[in-house]
Amino acid sequence: MSHYEDMIREDGLPGHESGLDPKPEWEPRYPGSGRLAGKVALVTGADSGIGRAVAALYAREGADVAILYLCEHDDARKTADIVEAEGRQALTIAGDVGDTAFCDSAIAQVIDRFGKLDILVNNAGEQHPDQDITDITEDQLRRTFQTNIFGMFFLTQAARPHLKDGAAIVNCTSVTMYQGASELLDYSSTKGAITAFTRSLSENLIDKGIRVNAVAPGPIWTPLNPCGGASEEKLEHFGESTPMGRPGQPNEVAPAFLFLACQDASYMSGQVLHPNGGMIVNG
């Protein structure tokens, strides 16, 4: 196990979805219609939460799915089982997206297994709540940026030679980028970088026929919050501040990732969708 994984495990991250109560809802809510038939998708952080729901929905819509994750092997195997139950192929790859060598290796494994890559979903992320900016250590700051934004650069760089005309990239930003979050200074900052990365990468790739968009979820019930240091009080009232008065479920977010990945969104690039329970962010 790497030094990075040692540090992450000390914080209880990434966290087992199997240990959450109630369980997050990942199941697709409707029959597939072949919108991703014949496609190959790579989803980071696909062992649990939003990533699992995206993998499940993509498989239902006809895609084979590469499941990238850090170290939660049991959760990743569950996601692979979900993909395979939809009649699609699954490939699980464990490692740190903040490591360039891992990203290069992961893409090589996807190409070796499937022969192509049509959809890249940069979803993996981590957060570490702190009451005061002086509580954020240099190690934590570097590690949050390494995973949340450096990892997107590294994986996109590795994938770029294999992305052809018609490919799609979907990044996961956050409502915290638009509204701020007093206890998530470093996390929110990475999400601001991700939004700027999405818009700039779209401008960079649009003439190549590659669309780049993002999704900015609000409070969603995944392992990220209960395993990422959120207080019991915060968890007790998690999502209640939204106009809908509740947190969202992963399968309420996944359709946004599907829309942006398929030809339904053929005239959209550089945009952000906001499944956030009704919060108006004007972004």
Automatic annotation (TrEMBL):
Against SUPFAM superfamilies, the record matches this protein to: NAD(P)-binding Rossmann-fold domains
Q: Coiled-coil regions in this chain? A: none
Keywords attached to this entry: Oxidoreductase
Q: Which portions of the chain have biased composition (kind: Basic and acidic residues)?
A: 1-28
Q: Which Gene3D superfamilies match?
A: NAD(P)-binding Rossmann-like Domain
Q: Which reaction does it catalyse?
A: 2,5-dichlorocyclohexa-2,5-dien-1,4-diol + NAD(+) = 2,5-dichlorohydroquinone + NADH + H(+)
Say which family it is in: Belongs to the short-chain dehydrogenases/reductases (SDR) family.
Q: What is this protein called?
A: Short-chain dehydrogenase
